[in-house]
């Protein structure tokens, strides 16, 4: 089991990419060190090339493990960088890239953000302390015949300032991009979780819709069978009983059987038409395909009052036959608003539900008293109410009441006569 662990690790595409990255940077560091030695970056002070090979390996090969042990890799690369520059190994380009990647990786992948910050700050502070020490040594070295130090802002001072500015930009960039990568990864993770939750909710809703459709079909079929077929059986029995002695009565009974059969076929045809209609507005479906309708608001209000939230219902205007979808959504919004009022309003909370039927809109308003819940990110209940209002072609307003006591939920949807052409 343990022997196969390296093989399983190699199967990870990220591990393979890190291996190729480390190998490529190692080759680049060796070539850069060789070219730097040929060019004589440090003159006669450069160590043997064997040291450059060790330096290139220590600087780049740990990056193969940068996602598995980011902090250790950063410390190893930083120490190798300090040692290499102190020994004047003629490689100054790939080393910067390796150190940048190591510091970026700590910021982007370490879950313990405090540890990630501490490790990076220690490396940055160590780098600038080392830079100050080497700058002081160079400035106080009387044998150094390099850049001129004459004048208030000498070439030597300009060179030192450039070193500090470049290092500040270099380490600041590595720190900043690492933090941004971590924040973006967390945002993607949250988005993926929400997407998974929405997908699960969609599947659950689809399953509930299928179950409701089955109940609805069973109810309609029961009505058809119980009414028409039982009537046909009674009439057929009566026809058989009087067939010999009263043909006219038998003929009338058989005519009733025929009428019942036609009625059953008509009801079945209406049922099929209803099932094919997405909004469930045809074939007499408004009579009761779902119990979650605006006509069920009195029961909802009574349930809220019985459970500790005194609630009153007021209907203004002449009710109109809204679609099944609109009625279900308005009912659910009222249910969620009353649930929130009972949950967050406190023991003395009350609620008032108003339905206004206008010429162009249907307005549902739930006003509650009691404590007002503080700010923060909206919960899924408010998100669901907003989605239901949008799905009905309407708008939703949610917020504290103007007096500051309680909560107000108001939804407006188009009335049926306001949807078509005028």
Task: Furnish the topology, listing elements before pairings.
Blueprint: H1 5-10, H2 13-39, H3 49-60, H4 70-86, H5 94-109, H6 113-139, H7 155-242, H8 247-276, H9 297-306, E1 311-316, H10 324-344, E2 351-357, E3 361-368, H11 380-391, E4 395-400, E5 407-414, H12 416-419
Parallel strand pairs: 1-2
Antiparallel strand pairs: 2-3, 3-5, 4-5
Helix pairs in contact: 2-3, 3-4, 4-5, 4-6, 5-7, 6-7, 7-8, 9-10, 10-11
Radius of gyration: 40 Å
Helix share of residues? 55-70%
Major β-sheet annotation: 5 strands, mixed
Mean pLDDT: 78
Spell out the helices and strands N to C.
HHHHHHHHHEHEEHEEH
Q: Per DSSP, what share of the residues sits in E-state strands of 2 or more residues?
A: 5-15%
List low-confidence stretches.
280-290, 418-422
Shape: elongated
Spatial gap, N to C terminus: 75 Å
Helix/strand-derived class? alpha+beta
Separate helix tally: 12
Total DSSP E strands: 5
Please list the strands of the largest sheet in the order they lie side by side. Answer: 1-2-3-5-4
Structure description:
- By secondary structure, this protein is an alpha+beta fold.
- 64% of the residues lie in helices and 8% in strands.
- It has a 5-stranded mixed β-sheet with strand order 1-2-3-5-4.
- Strand 4 and strand 5 (407-414) form a beta hairpin.
- Helix 5 (94-109) runs parallel beside helix 7 (155-242) and helix 9 runs parallel beside helix 10.
- The longest helix has 88 residues, at 155-242.
- Residues 280-290 and 418-422 have low confidence and may be disordered.
């Amino acid at each position: 089991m343990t022997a196969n662990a390296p093989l399983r690790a190699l199967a990870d595409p990220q591990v393979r990419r890190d291996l190729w990255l480390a190998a490529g940077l190692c080759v680049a560091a060796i070539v850069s060190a060789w070219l730097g030695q040929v060019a004589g970056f440090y003159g006669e002070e450069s160590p043997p090339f064997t040291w450059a090979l060790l330096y290139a390996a220590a600087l780049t090969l740990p990056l193969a493990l940068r996602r598995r042990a980011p902090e250790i890799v950063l410390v190893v690369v930083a120490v190798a960088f300090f040692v290499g520059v102190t020994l004047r190994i003629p490689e100054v380009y790939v080393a910067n890239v390796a150190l940048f990647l190591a510091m970026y990786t700590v910021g982007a992948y370490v879950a313990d953000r405090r540890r990630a910050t501490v490790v990076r700050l220690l490396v940055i502070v160590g780098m600038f302390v080392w830079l100050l020490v080497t700058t002081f040594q160079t400035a106080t070295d009387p044998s150094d015949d390099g850049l001129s130090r004459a004048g208030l802002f000498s070439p030597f001072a300009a060179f030192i300032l450039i070193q500090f500015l470049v290092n500040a930009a270099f380490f600041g960039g590595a720190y900043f991009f690492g933090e941004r990568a971590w924040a973006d990864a967390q945002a993607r993770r949250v988005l993926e979780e929400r997407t998974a939750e929405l997908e699960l909710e969609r599947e659950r809703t689809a399953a509930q819709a299928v179950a409701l459709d089955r109940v609805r079909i069973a109810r309609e079929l029961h009505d058809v069978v119980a009414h028409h077929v039982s009537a046909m059986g009674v009439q057929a029995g009566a026809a058989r009983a009087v067939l010999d002695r009263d043909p006219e009565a038998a003929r009338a009974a058989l005519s009733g059987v025929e009428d019942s059969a036609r009625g059953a076929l008509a009801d079945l045809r209406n049922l099929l038409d209803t099932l094919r209609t997405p909004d469930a507005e045809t074939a007499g479906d408004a009579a009761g395909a779902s119990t979650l309708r605006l006509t069920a608001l009195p029961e909802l209000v009574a349930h809220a009052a019985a459970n500790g939230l005194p609630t009153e219902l007021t209907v203004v205007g002449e009710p109109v036959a809204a679609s099944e979808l609109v009625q279900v959504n308005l009912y659910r919004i009222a249910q969620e608003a009353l649930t929130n009022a009972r949950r967050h309003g406190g023991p003395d909370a009350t609620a008032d539900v108003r339905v206004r039927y206008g010429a162009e809109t249907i307005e549902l308003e739930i006003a509650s008293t009691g404590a007002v819940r503080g700010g923060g990110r909206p919960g899924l209940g408010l998100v669901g109410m907003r989605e239901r209002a949008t799905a009905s072609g309407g708008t939703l307003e949610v917020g504290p009441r103007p007096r500051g006591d309680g909560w107000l939920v108001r939804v407006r949807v188009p009335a049926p006569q306001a949807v078509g052409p005028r």
